[in-house]
Amino acid sequence: MTDEEFKSSIANSIASLAAENKETERVLKEMFAETDRKIDKVSKQIDSVSKQMGGINENIGYHAEQFFQNVFADNKVFGGIKYDDIILNMKYGDKTGEVEFDIVLENGNTLALIEVKNRIHPDFVKKLAEERMSKFRKYFPMYKGYDVYLGIAGFSFDKAVLEEAKKYGVGIIKQVGDGIEVNAKDLRAYH
């Protein structure tokens, strides 16, 4: 093989590789574009399912709230204390924040603040006893001097929630058939 033939062979090989490289780039671009379309489609499907699940969770939460509000409206007793009035969804908000209590029972010198959740998590007990109770005192000064008892009503509790409730003196209210069961043996007044 002469130098010219060798150079020509190398040039042909380089040209062939360049063409193959361009074809490989084109195929990869098509593959990435198709992958991006599939990822976008799956992402939209996930968003749709997430919205549906959020709606389901919201409906379950609304059902829990309605159930416990109805039971307490019929029988205004919590922790062995009879209450005269019930306030549903008592809220206050300003530019510094907002607080809402699902069920408030009142009898002139004592309040029960009851929060309703479908499923209770242990950190919610601490949040209720510390943060939300502090906000209550700040936003509702007309109840200064009242003994305040805290309760959490829900359809599902795990052992950690029960331990936290005992630690903070928070009553636990569970659904039992068409009624409720109240565990208030460790209930404590927040002054």
CATH topology annotation of the domain at 69-183? Trna Endonuclease, Chain: A, domain 1
Q: Outline, from the CA principal axes? A: rod-shaped
Structural class: alpha/beta
Using the 3D structure, state the CATH architecture of the domain at 69-183: 3-Layer(aba) Sandwich
CATH class of the domain at 69-183: Alpha Beta
Strand content: 25-35%
Specify the number of helices: 3
- Computed Rg: 32 Å
Describe the main β-sheet briefly. Answer: 6 strands, mixed
Helix content: 40-55%
Write up what this structure looks like.
With 191 residues, this protein is an alpha/beta fold. The protein has a domain at 69-183: Trna Endonuclease, Chain: A, domain 1, CATH 3.40.1350.10. It is 52% helix and 29% strand. The protein has 3 helices and 8 strands. It has helices at residues 3-74, 122-139, 159-168, and strands at residues 77-78, 81-82, 85-94, 97-106, 110-119, 147-156, 171-176, 179-183. The strands form 2 sheets. The chain has a 6-stranded mixed sheet with strand order 3-4-5-6-7-8, sandwiched between helices. Strands 1-2 form a two-stranded antiparallel ribbon. Strand 7 (171-176) and strand 8 form a beta hairpin. The termini are far apart. 19% of the residues are buried. The model has no long low-confidence stretch (mean pLDDT 82).
